[in-house]
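Sample entry (203 residues):
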Amino acid sequence: MRRALISSLCCLAICVLLAMPMWAQSAPPQAPSFGDPAAYLVQQFGPSFKLDQNIPPMFGDMDGDGKEDVVMVASSSTPLMSQAQFGFKVEDPYDSYFGTGDPRITTQFTLHFDGSSRCFLIVLDWRHPQAKSKVTTKFVLINTPFEAARIVPLRFKKKDIHAIEVIDRSTLHSLLFWTGKRWVWSAQGMEGDDSMFKMPPTN
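Predicted structure, serialized as tokens:
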């Protein structure tokens, strides 16, 4: 009886050891946390983007749905190349403000004087990836000239959201914010000149 029990336990242990590699293969990969923002960026947007190590990821509620979104700064000379594969949308709110916002055209513009082709990479509700969602939740905003950036609160259409405030070489402050349909750039005024400061339109 004892010998039969030992034999059964040995067989069970062998079966478990043989099954472990299959379990390891079928387990879903763990998404990188923001302990490794560079790995998260590559996972979400692809290897054509290089994280700007001087500007850490920024967090806020960009669309006002009560869920945390993330904004990263990266550079890429080919932002359109992997948008279909990684499910993001490239927009150019800065050039749209001046009347020419088609990224297929404006990716050829050079607005960053350091040659970095820096852009903002945004993931809405980053804690809960929506890989199969029909709604775009990842965006790349190109061509906004800036030297510094931060997340600021904004009241837009009676809704509390966050916006990206940027300051360019001339100390012009401007905002990048989500209207519910697209990203918009809005000039705010020169640093220290509150008389020029104006909020985005509310209609």
